[in-house]
Every structure is written in C-alpha cells, then in structure tokens.
Amino acid sequence: MKIKGTEISGNIFLAPMCNVTNLPFRLLCKRYGAAVVYTEMINADAYLMDSAVTKKRCSILTEERPVGIQMFGSDAGKLAKAAQKIEHDLAPDMIDINIGCPAYDVMKNGCGASLLKDPVKLGTLVKKISSSINIPLTCKIRILPNDQDVMDVARVIQGNGAALLTVHGRTAKQGYSGKANWEVIRKIKSGLDIPVVLNGDITDGRSAKQAFEMTGCDAVMVGRAAIGNPGIFLEINSYLEGKATQTTLQSKISALLDYVQLSISLGYTDILPMKMQAQKTLKGFEGSGKLRDSISRTESIENLQELLASI
Ligand SMILES: Cc1cc2nc3c(=O)[nH]c(=O)nc-3n(C[C@H](O)[C@H](O)[C@H](O)COP(=O)(O)O)c2cc1C
C-alpha cells in the first residue's frame, strides 16, 4: 500500500489513543510488527503555544517510522499553521486530523466528531491543511447514523487532498459500545480511490482476516486490543501468513516489563500508563485479582516491576 507515494510495508496499524500510544508503547508495537503507528491526539492550539506536555506527546523517534502525529482542532487556519510547524519541527511521515473524538469537552469546541456535522466546512479545513504541508495528510472519522452522510463526508475528505482515510465503524453517540459496522466501511472503500483503513473490533488474527475479506480495506487499525498486548501485531501478522502464534501470559508479561523499561529509559516516568497497561494484561487471567489489587495500590515503578517479575 502507498500513502501519497510512500510505500508502507504491512497493513496492521496502531490506533491513536490518548494516554496509551506514548513513545515507548509505539516503539514496542513497532517492534512487534505494527506497520504504521500514530501518536495520541494533540491539541493544535497547544502545539502552537509551545506547550511542553503537548510536545512530549508528539515526540517521535526514527525507529518507529512510519509514524503519524494526530491533531485535533476546529479552526482551519490554526490547524494548518500547527501542521506546518509540526512538519518543520518533527518531520513525521504524516499528519492526521481527528474527526471522530466523541468526548464532550472536545466536541463542544467544534473539534473531533463535531466536524462531521458540516461537510462543507470540513472540506475547507481539509483543503487548507493538506495544501499547507508536503507530507501526507490522513484523516480519521467515525461513521454517521445515515450511510449516505458518511459517504459524502468521505468523498469530501478525499476531494480536498487527504491521502488516506481511517474509518472507525461506530457513531460518536455509540462511543465504544456496540459492534463496529464494517458494512459501511466496505461501501466507503468501494467508493474511494485513496487507501481506506478499517478500525473497530479488530481483536485477533481471525477478525483482521475477516475485515480484509469482507470490506477489501487496505489496512486494519488496532485500538483497545493492543493495550496490555503489543504482541497482537505479531499474532495478527502471523495468522495472516498462515502461522499460528499463541500469545501466552508469560509473553505478555515480558512485553509489559519491556514497556516499563523502555518508558524509564526514554523519560516517561509517569506510573499511571504503566499500571493501566498492566491491569489490561492481567485482566481475565484466573487468580490475578490479588495481583491486580496490589498493582492498583502501588506508587513505585520498582515495586510494579517486582510484582510483574514475580508472576
Ligand atoms: C483509551 C482510548 C483513547 C483513545 N484516544 C484516541 C485519540 O487520541 N484519537 C483518536 O482518533 N481515537 C482515539 N481513540 C479511539 C481509537 O483510536 C479507536 O478508534 C477505537 O478504540 C476503536 O478501535 P478498537 O475497537 O480497536 O478499540 C481512543 C480509544 C481509547 C480506548
């Protein structure tokens, strides 16, 4: 698959996720075979104001390329300016616009999924950003209650210079519940020329294979199933190549310890994302209740490492 002339090897992407897809996690997913990784969404206005927190959120390394930086905002001019500055400062492989976040605080300011409501305004915004940068602009949307409406949005995005479209097959109202609607994504894929990435409910090799077969999408994007299990990229790629790779609790713990170590060495020393990954890794494993309890109470990274190593 090519994104505006850039050849991408592989077709399993890591989804942008707030407080999850930080630099150490993206690097780990890359090592396990993610074809493209995205930063968590950053506020375009905050980037323009040189916010240190925002800059850390989109700090990237060569090893994780191709990497996309995702931004959110509502003002076309500011988004274009931020995109130019990001291209100049960081030279990511692509910049992505968040057109799907359903969070109240994001939508009330006209950002995220609220951009889906006005395709004309959205078209102007996409045009302004795509024509301001040399690297590809990608967009990530959610579906709408009416299929025709989301088809119109997808065509507007393509027509105004986006190089790739990711579609999360849930409406903003659905949040993260209910089943992702892949049928709409099939329709969008068949109506567009740019690559279409399917997102929603990719949880293993089987679901990835089904998604490709059912929709003809160019790639699939994994979100929640990667939390606590970055090895999912190896698992899916192996399955698609006809080789079964069983992810065990031990291999997940080992990846988790690597994540903690990588976080420390890269200066990401906030324990909360580590604890969240650990909780997700251990969820569902018999007898892990006590351990999860201890993890939720620990405030030291060393203690967290000891708890994990004791499994
Ligand atoms: C904790 C969390 C944070 C998220 N943050 C973002 C974000 O920053 N940008 C974005 O476009 N989507 C975000 N999403 C949505 C995911 O990218 C993805 O669209 C969604 O989880 C559906 O995919 P899944 O079914 O594979 O989880 C987030 C989802 C979760 C669970």
Task: Please describe what this structure looks like.
The protein has two domains: 239 residues, Aldolase class I (TIM Barrel, Alpha-Beta Barrel), CATH 3.20.20.70; 61 residues. The mean pLDDT is 96. The chain is an alpha/beta fold and 311 residues long. The chain has an eight-stranded parallel β-barrel, surrounded by seven helices. The chain has a two-stranded antiparallel ribbon with strand order 1-2. 45% of the residues lie in helices and 14% in strands. Helix 7 links the parallel strand 8 and strand 9. 47% of the residues are buried.
Keywords:
binds flavin mononucleotide, two-stranded antiparallel sheet, alpha/beta, TIM Barrel, 311 residues, eight-stranded parallel beta barrel, 2 domains, 11 strands
The average pLDDT score comes to: 96
- The rounded Rg comes to 19 Å
User: In the CATH classification, which architecture of the largest domain applies?
Assistant: Alpha-Beta Barrel
- Count of discrete structural domains: 2
The set of bound ligands, ions and cofactors reads:
flavin mononucleotide
DSSP strand (E) fraction? 5-15%
Structural class: alpha/beta
- Taking the alpha carbons of the first and last residues, their distance comes to 41 Å
Q: How many strand elements?
A: 11
Q: Order of helices and strands, N to C?
A: EEEHEEHHEHEHHEHEHEHEHHHHH
Query: Which fold name is given in CATH as the topology of the largest domain?
Result: TIM Barrel
General shape: globular
Count of DSSP-assigned helices: 14
Residue windows where pLDDT falls under 50 for at least 5 positions: none
CATH homologous superfamily of the largest domain? Aldolase class I
